[in-house]
């Protein structure tokens, strides 16, 4: 028995336009995709659900650097043993466990082990600064951390509570490499190899319990913990099943700490029996070599990598055999028609499938499934299975229809539970009927395709990461020679966008562009660094004091 959830078009007949999916009587766009089934058993964790899915896959993970392989049976044995070890260390349902690590074939073992206990996994980006990691730790209050020897000092600097740490490195590392501020309580490899002395007491996990806590940049600059439930992740797995076939091969270069990577490589594709070749970080030569050696059929990429492949097409095609590759899935930001056409021209056997989603929607909202859909240039695809949408005028609140631009609201089983310890932000983002306000200006055309026009949210998208202008502005205003500051995006062919700062110097200051960029560089992750500075007499603002970013963007454009 299965239960259907969400806005399937088949259940709506009155005043429904089947081409667009728009229903006049409800003012809701319904997905044209076949609805996917969600398990009716409420007492089910996502790890158990994934492990129960039938497929014929044999090898689940391959380390692209060392060649180490994990079979599905080794994966699930490792998950069971690590879960038992965590239970022995005192980890219980509702506890938070943080993982600070680059991509690794062991990353999913940690995540799945934590979630099957009913505990909550929170992922930290290894390129984040200690201050950024410290904010995440202070907010989420983990009881245990997983990290590598290379990152342990960063974790130590971020935590003042002597956080217990399990090291994830495969090989033995001399103890003198360990930071004295860190309390090492175990090694992941030892956990994987150790048979449990006694069976753990399994606590009941409900689908509505929080499974993962992924941090997303807010428009205010305050990073917020997005609570994704077991149900959200199970629905995400089922959306993957609807979109992709069983037992394919892919290379993972998207960070597993990001919702895009976590939803694909640490959960969804495992359930489909895929073989996932893991790169610790993106490096073009390693990525293309892995495709060639392991005969990858799919790649999940962000736009800057696609742009780089276009720019280096002659070199790539002469150097690498990419004949196994037939599909590239792109998320993070829209690709222009020009880039897509150039890509298809240079790689004629590969189709590009775009998609759109948010951390708050478990990376799912709209997507393309077929080569035909991919020809709808500029679109992000059709609404994903079980997703309903509204287009709302952001000024009047009026519900709009086909080909009308407004804020996209979505409702689906993948929409988050809310923001961790932040009821005010949750209430302003999800209404009483479960509609998630995406903060993106979009329209849905007469064929049901979603087009992202602009962002109401002021986030800058750099290399697939989100950068909150307000966060950088707060740092800039802390400089003793800066009277006022505003940050806007500047377009870049490879990164998509970079942060640019407009600065009002204090009287008598001769502060230089290089000094400002260096000041910020010391405090933030590489993708947040300011790449250009311009000086103004004043920052344009409205009567209430809000920065008029569009005027600054026009000013920037006129001077480029």
TrEMBL record:
Any coiled-coil regions, as ranges: none
Lineage: superkingdom: Eukaryota
Residues spanning the membrane: 259-279
Requisite cofactors: Mg(2+)
UniProt keyword terms in alphabetical order: ATP-binding, Ligase, Magnesium, Membrane, Nucleotide-binding, Transmembrane, Transmembrane helix
Short name of any one Pfam family annotated for the protein: AMP-binding_C
Annotated Gene3D superfamilies: 3.30.300.30, N-terminal domain of ligase-like
Cellular-component GO terms for this entry: peroxisome
Annotated AMP-dependent synthetase/ligase domain residues: 55-420
An MF annotation (GO) of this entry: ATP binding
Transmembrane found in the keyword field: yes
Domain annotation AMP-binding enzyme C-terminal: ranges: 471-546
Family per similarity comment: Belongs to the ATP-dependent AMP-binding enzyme family.
Protein name: 4-coumarate--CoA ligase
Organism of provenance: Capsella rubella
């Amino acid at each position: 028995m299965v239960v259907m959830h969400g806005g399937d078009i088949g259940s709506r007949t009155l005043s429904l336009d089947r081409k667009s999916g728009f229903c006049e009587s409800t003012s809701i766009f319904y997905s044209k995709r076949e609805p996917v089934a969600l398990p009716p058993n409420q007492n089910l964790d996502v790890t158990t659900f994934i492990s129960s899915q039938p497929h014929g896959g044999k090898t689940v993970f391959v380390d692209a650097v060392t060649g180490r392989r994990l079979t599905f049976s080794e994966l699930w044995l490792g998950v069971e043993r690590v879960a038992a070890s965590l239970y022995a260390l005192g980890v219980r349902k509702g506890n938070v466990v943080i993982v600070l690590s680059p991509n690794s074939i062991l990353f999913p073992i940690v995540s799945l082990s934590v979630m099957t206990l009913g505990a909550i996994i929170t992922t930290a980006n290894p390129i984040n600064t200690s201050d950024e990691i410290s904010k995440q730790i202070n907010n989420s209050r983990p009881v245990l951390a997983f990290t590598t020897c290379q990152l342990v000092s960063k974790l130590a600097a971020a935590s003042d509570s002597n956080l217990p740490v399990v090291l994830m490195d495969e090989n033995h590392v001399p103890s003198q490499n360990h930071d004295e501020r860190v309390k090492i309580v175990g090694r992941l490899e030892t956990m994987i190899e150790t048979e449990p002395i006694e069976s753990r007491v399994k606590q009941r996990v409900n689908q509505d319990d929080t499974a993962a806590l992924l941090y997303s940049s807010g428009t205010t600059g305050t990073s917020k913990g997005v609570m994704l439930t077991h149900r959200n992740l199970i629905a995400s797995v089922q959306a993957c099943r609807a979109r992709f076939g069983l037992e394919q091969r892919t290379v993972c270069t998207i960070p597993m700490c990001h919702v895009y990577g976590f939803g694909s490589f640490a959960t969804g594709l495992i359930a489909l029996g895929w073989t996932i070749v893991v790169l610790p970080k993106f490096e073009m030569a390693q990525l293309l070599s892995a495709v060639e050696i392991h005969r990858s059929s799919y790649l999940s990429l962000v736009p800057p990598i696609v742009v780089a492949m276009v720019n280096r097409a002659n070199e790539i095609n002469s150097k690498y055999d990419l004949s196994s590759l037939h599909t590239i899935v792109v998320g993070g930001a829209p690709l222009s028609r020009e880039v897509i056409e150039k890509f298809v021209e240079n790689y004629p056997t590969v189709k590009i499938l775009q998609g759109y989603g948010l951390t708050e929607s478990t990376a799912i909202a709209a997507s393309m499934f077929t080569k035909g859909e991919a020809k709808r240039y500029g679109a992000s695809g059709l609404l994903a299975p079980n997703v309903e949408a509204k287009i709302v005028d952001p000024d009047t609140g009026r519900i709009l229809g086909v080909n009308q631009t407004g804020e996209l609201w979505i409702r689906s089983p993948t929409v988050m539970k809310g923001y961790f310890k932040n009821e005010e932000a949750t209430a302003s983002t999800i209404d009483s009927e479960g509609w998630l306000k995406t903060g993106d200006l979009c329209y849905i055309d007469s064929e049901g395709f979603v087009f992202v026009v602009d962002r109401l949210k002021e986030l800058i998208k750099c290399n697939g990461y989100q950068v909150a202008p307000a966060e950088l502005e707060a740092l800039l205003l802390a400089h003793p020679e800066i009277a006022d500051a505003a940050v806007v995006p500047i377009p870049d062919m490879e990164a998509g966008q970079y942060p640019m700062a407009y600065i009002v110097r204090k009287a008598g200051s001769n502060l230089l562009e290089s000094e400002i960029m260096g000041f910020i560089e010391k405090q933030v992750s590489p993708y947040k660094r300011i790449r250009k500075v311009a000086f103004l007499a004043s920052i344009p603002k409205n009567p209430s004091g809000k920065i008029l970013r569009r005027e600054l963007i026009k000013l920037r454009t006129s001077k480029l």
